[in-house]
Every structure is written in structure tokens, then in C-alpha cells.
Amino acid sequence: MQILTPHVYWAQRHGEIYLRVELSDAKNLDINVQENNTLQFRALGHGAKGEHEYEFSLEFLEPVRPEINHKSTQRQVDIKIKKQEERWWDRLTLQEKKPVFLAPDFDRWLDESDAEMELQAKEEEKINKISVESRVRKDPYLGLKRGYLFMYNLVQFLGFSWIFVNMTVRLFILGQDSFYDTFHSTADMMYFCQMMAVLEVVNPLLGLVKTGFFPAMIQVAGRNTILFVIFGSLEEMQNRPVVFFVFYLWSTIEIFRYPFYMLACIGTEWKLLTWLRYSIWIPLYPLGVIAEAVAVIQSLPIFDETRLFSLPLPAVMGQSLSFSCILQLYLALMFLGLFINFRHLYKQRRRRYRSRKRKVH
Q: Which ranges in the chain belong to alpha helices (H)?
């Protein structure tokens, strides 16, 4: 019989190599790794050229373990090989030029960052499998912590819901006129909610939640700068329409975020709420940052004129440094913060739906 080469598809993880050989009804399989780190494959089966004997060899980029797991089905031969060292390979073979019969297996293909997220999700899944009883024994204050987090999220949900409903009702009754007194009608509740939000920076430091400290600090510090420094200290800003858009975008995001975390404290999930929590921020978060940027830009001439918060300078350098100069620097940092938090939230969303997809399958 003529010896032919089958089509081979490959993918990798940090610790494993996956090969899929397009050979149906394979028989007389002979698969092994030689001492020179080369995989030898030979089998009789039905491939692209019909019923023939097919073979190929691959010299791997780095050492692999000699043990091979393979499974032959009516359609293909699946091969799994463990790497000697768990690390990401730039390519599969030692030779830079890819063999003509080799192609990526897009059904299994992940890039390096996706593979790292998959590893992290697996670790989280292992942690979640620990029984509630054992966790209670290890942490006698678990119930107290959950109770605190539940109440915190409930209070924040009620506060932002009040702001959202109040602004919505006033918008329907007064129309555009409601834009100009948003601050006076909702500021007290917004002050309360944003002062409470400082706990979101403290909670990760105390180990109460797994959320990263840095993204939480960026959001809380950014919002409090807009609320207390821009709106709170400048009466000229308090009757401008930008206040309405900033408050409305903030509250719209939070009325879905806080109940999601609140239900997570008691092990409950609503699919629609989960989708809203991980999706609605995609358009609203950038819009919120744009509205905040507009507020900063509108406040610059006011700070220049009033010299409020100006920093005194030595006589040689001038009288004082206007606070607007600091705000211009903050304006640039605001969009850097947008990029950092957007990337963080997007990774959270991908990790969430990747782990849910695995559970379904």
C-alpha cells in the first residue's frame, strides 16, 4: 500500500498538547515519542486518499513526556501529550516552517491570555467545590461576613434605586427642566452612597471580597472627585445638565450591580440579572466617563476665575498654581483609568461566561 500523510490539527495549553488526526476507523495504531523528542504516528485507516496506511512525525519545540493518551473514534484519532515543563510554546515544532499537513485546531484553540484565564477559572472552580460545612469550620465568621456584605449591597441598591426612580419620575413630569435641579433633589442621597462606596476599597484589603483593590480604588476615587470637588464645591456647576447625565449613568449601572452581589451572598442567581450586570456596563461605563470628562472641562474656567483650591507657590515661580492645571492632568488619567477598568471588567465578563459554558457542557 502507498504510505500517505493525514491532516493533523493541533492546539495547546500550558501543560498539554492536543492533536487531532483526520483518520476514520483507524486500526493498527502505533504512536510513540522517540528519544529525540519526536512523535511517530502510523495507522491504517480511511483518510483524504481513502483506505491506506498513514504516517507522520513531529519533532516538538521542547521536551514532552513519553506517556501518550489517545482515543480512536469512527471519525478521528485524538492524541493528548503532556509537556515536560508547563509553559507556553511559540510554535509546535522545532523547525520554524510549519509542516504542510499541520494546521490549528480552532475548536480547541486559545491564545496565551485565554489559556491563563482558563487556568484561573479552573482554580476558582476547585475552590468552589469545597463544601459549605468545611468552609464554616475553617472560618467561623463566614456567616457574619456574608451578612455584612448582603446588608451593604442592599443599602447601596436601595440608595441608587431611589436616585434612579427620583430622576426618572422628574424627567417624565418636568422634561428637560429636571436637568437643572438634579443636584439639589438627589445630592444628599448621592453623597451618602458614594461615602458608603469607600468600603469597596476597604473590603478587598480585609479579604472580605476577591475583587481587586486597584480597580475599586480607581472607580471610587474618580466618582468622589467629580461629586465632592467638581459638583459639591462649585455652586456654578450644580445647576448644569451634565449633573443629570453623570448621576443617571452612575445609578443605572449600580441598580444592576448591587443586587447581583447581594444575591451572590446567599448563593442565588437570576440569569437575566447576571446578563445585565455583565453587559450593561459595556455602553454605560464609557458614557459615564465621557460625562465626567465634560463636567471637568466645564469646571476649568470656574476654578481659574475663583482660584479655589489654588496651590501657593514661591514668589520666584509666581503667586499660585490654579487647581485647573491639576484637573487637566486628572482628565488624562481619567481615560487611563477607563482603559484599566474596562479591561478588568471585560476579563471578568469573559471568565464568567467561559466558566458557565463549561458547566453547561
A: 112-128, 132-138, 142-174, 182-196, 199-205, 213-224, 241-264, 271-279, 281-306, 323-360
- Residue 292 among the catalytic residues: yes
Q: State the average pLDDT for the chain.
A: 86
Q: Taking residues 44-64, what's their average pLDDT? A: 90
Catalytic-labelled residue, pool 148, 180, 191, 285: 285
pLDDT (tens digit per residue) in 132-191: 444 445 667 788 989 999 999 999 999 999 999 999 999 999 999 999 999 999 999 999
- Retrieve residue 128's grid coordinates: 468552589
Considering the candidates 292, 305, 330, 353, report the single residue annotated as catalytic: 292
pTM strictly above 0.70: no
Domains of the chain in sequence order: 3-109 (2.60.40.790), 141-360 (no CATH)
To the query of whether residue 85 is one of the catalytic residues in this protein, the response is: no
pLDDT (tens digit per residue) in 185-216: 999 999 999 999 999 999 988 888 877 788 78
